[in-house]
Structures are given as C-alpha cells and as structure tokens.
Amino acid sequence: MLTVEQIENAILELPPNEIGELLEWFLNLDYQRWDIQLEKDIAKGKLDALAGEAIADFESGNYREI
Description:
The chain is mainly alpha-helical.
C-alpha cells in the first residue's frame, strides 16, 4: 500500500486536467461517505433531538424563508 507522502508526490506529478478529475472523484467519494454516515446516524436516532428542535421552532413561527 502507498503512503500518504507517496500519494501526494504522485498527485503533484499529474497534469492539471487530471488533478481536476481526481478532485471531482475525491469529493464524490467524500459526499457518498457523508451520506452513508448520515443515514446511519438517522437510523440510530442521533438526530432526533435536532429534528425535534427544528420542528418546534417551525411550529412556533421561529423561522425565516430562504
């Protein structure tokens, strides 16, 4: 397996268009992992308190349209 330093050095050798492709790939990977973690947290009820607060604020008129 490559080290982080080896990966960094390889990235520095890429042409600009390939760095852009790599960045897009990496961001998509990060978004996918974030979505998976968010779904797990929702299923475990970790966001229930925040959702309850948001609903209570909305129902009391404590919100603004965006």
